[in-house]
TrEMBL record:
Gene3D superfamilies: Alanine racemase, Lyase, Ornithine Decarboxylase, Chain A, domain 1. GO terms for molecular function: alanine racemase activity. This is Alanine racemase. Residues 8-225 form the Alanine racemase N-terminal domain. Keywords: Isomerase, Pyridoxal phosphate. It is an enzyme of class 5 (isomerase). It comes from Microbacterium bandirmense. Its cofactor is pyridoxal 5'-phosphate.
Length: 344
């Protein structure tokens, strides 16, 4: 093992999923797997999660959703507004589509009518984030169009969804009122949505009254807590980034991981775990970093950049907080040159 590696624990992933499921029950989990399962790889994590009883998988874009579909026959959801070609591929593969604009709703209905394959759609109401979604004043038209298509057997309106800003409890409460109002207008028009999903990780975890029937959750299942957020009971880190000692200098040790591997050079100053305790990163170059020296440093050793293992080292979120980003950003930026090693 002379290259950097992201060691990933299947068991920890499974336990996190179980902890999230227990926490949000009776609401169900939609496991979000965008960015190749937050950088951990879909090929092992989809079957593992399906084995763990996950019924809904969230792929963000159609491409990811199709890759998930190839690995499981459970429900798969894609919510990025997509091209007609992508929508057709998704509908053909039985992927549920999140729809938040009149244009996209029209495209999805056209494709379903043309192919004769009924499309499963989840209508998005904009509850204040203004990032896609029907505005409240557009909702009546969206409902009328979707219901008419449903009556013709062209689509099924399976769900209503939105995304919370999570900036304050008051704003989220106001968003929930808008959400409930939108659902009521759909059911008044004869709609019978099976799933209502408003929340992602933090609100799902901490605010049971906002959960609805389905919760889109990514980060926590991968052991990534919210930046500046509290510890989560039952959630553990699932991945550890390690890198080899490449060379021993006079006043530093060269470690074989750097910005070419996706590590932000702004992490300089953070501490890594060496066999002799924590040492600071002195500088980060392309293929390597310089670390404060330790007694007995040797080229057959490895250091832990983040993850469980030795006392006191940072998790990905602690690193992320140093550079004002979120934990998943650290892991998803790691390039394929960082080998993913799946362990039990
Ligand atoms: C990424 C994403 C999620 C999952 O967010 P986490 O914070 O990782 O749980 C949920 N919903 C939407 C719309 C997303 O884009």
């Amino acid at each position: 093992m002379s290259s950097p590696a992201l060691e990933i624990s299947r068991g920890a992933f499974r336990r996190n999923i179980a902890a999230v499921q227990a926490r949000i029950a009776p609401a169900a989990l939609m496991l979000v797997m965008k960015d190749d399962a937050y950088g951990h790889g879909l090929h092992w994590s989809v079957p593992e999660a399906a084995d763990g009883g996950v019924e809904w998988f969230g792929g963000y874009d159609v491409d990811t959703a199709l890759r998930i579909r190839a690995l499981t026959d459970r429900k798969v959801y894609a919510w990025a507004t997509s091209t007609v070609e992508e929508a057709e591929a998704a509908i053909t593969a039985g992927i549920h589509l999140g729809v938040g604009s009149a244009q996209y709703l029209g495209d999805v209905i056209d494709v379903a009518a043309r192919t004769g394959i009924r499309a499963d759609v989840h209508l998005k109401i904009d509850t204040g984030l203004h990032r896609n979604g029907f505005r409240p004043d557009e909702w009546a038209d969206a409902v009328a169009t979707a219901r008419a298509a449903e009556e013709r057997g062209v689509v099924r309106v399976v769900g209503v969804w939105s995304h919370l800003a999570e900036a304050s409890d008051d704003e989220d409460d106001a968003a929930q009122r808008l959400f409930h109002d939108a659902v009521r207008r759909l059911t008044d028009a004869g709609g019978r949505p099976e799933v209502l999903h408003l929340t992602a990780s933090a609100a799902s975890w901490w605010r049971p009254e906002l959960r609805g029937t389905l919760n889109r959750i990514g980060a926590f299942c991968y052991g990534i807590r919210s930046a500046d957020g509290p510890e989560l009971e039952g959630i553990e880190l699932i991945s550890r980034l390690t890198a080899p000692v490449a060379e021993i200098g006079d006043d530093h040790v060269v470690v074989g991981v750097g910005s070419f591997h996706g590590l932000p050079s702004t992490l300089c100053g953070a501490r890594v775990a060496t066999p002799d305790g924590l040492r600071r990163i002195l500088s980060i170059g392309g293929g390597e970093m310089h670390v404060e020296p330790w007694a007995g440093a040797q080229t057959d050793q490895r250091v832990v950049v983040f993850g469980p293992g030795r006392d006191g080292e940072a998790d990905a979120t602690a690193l992320a907080e140093r550079i004002d980003t979120v934990g998943e950003e650290i892991i998803t930026r790691l390039t394929p040159a960082v080998r993913r090693v799946i362990v039990d």
